[in-house]
Structure formats: C-alpha cells, structure tokens
Design goal:
Layout: E1 2-9, E2 19-20, E3 22-26, E4 32-37, H1 38-44, E5 49-57, H2 82-95
Parallel strand pairs: 1-5
Antiparallel strand pairs: 1-2, 1-3, 3-4
Length: about 100
Amino acid sequence: MRGFSADWVIPSGPEAEPIAGGAVVFDEQGSVVAVGEGEALRGAHRAAAWSHERAILLPGLVNAHTHLELSALRGQTRSGGGCGAWRRGRIEACHTR
C-alpha cells in the first residue's frame, strides 16, 4: 500500500468537501482504498509507505467534450496512424460528401 498526504485533498463527488491536511491511500494495483484526514489515515494504514506533498491532491480531470459536427462522419474515416493521419482522414471524408 502507498499513502500520500498533502496540504489539501479534494475528494470526488458533489457533496465532498476539501480536506485540509488530507490523505489518499492506494492499494498495490493503484486503486483508491481511502480518502480522509491525514493523521487518521496514517494511523489506520500504518503499513503503507507514506509521503507528504506540498500540494493539492485531486481526482484526474477529464476532457469530455465532443464535436457534434463530426458525428456525421462516424465509420467513414480510418483510425490508427496518429493524429496527422486522423486529420487527413477527416478532411478526405468531408470533401467526398
């Protein structure tokens, strides 16, 4: 197990409040085991390898935007080959419509 404490922890969820002096504990697979007040988690997870960061720990941010104007091209372009090939495929699909 691995534990990280920080100046602030921002838990996920709409009702979650920021935790001053918070911590996050992960299992060996990298899954979150516990989130809470740092000293309490250090006591509950004594076997974990701990480190303290002068930082704010928060869940990963997700870019969930979409381009609706590209929806009509579904299945008409190739995937793979990197970003350049992807762009060329989109341009070709638009010009053949």
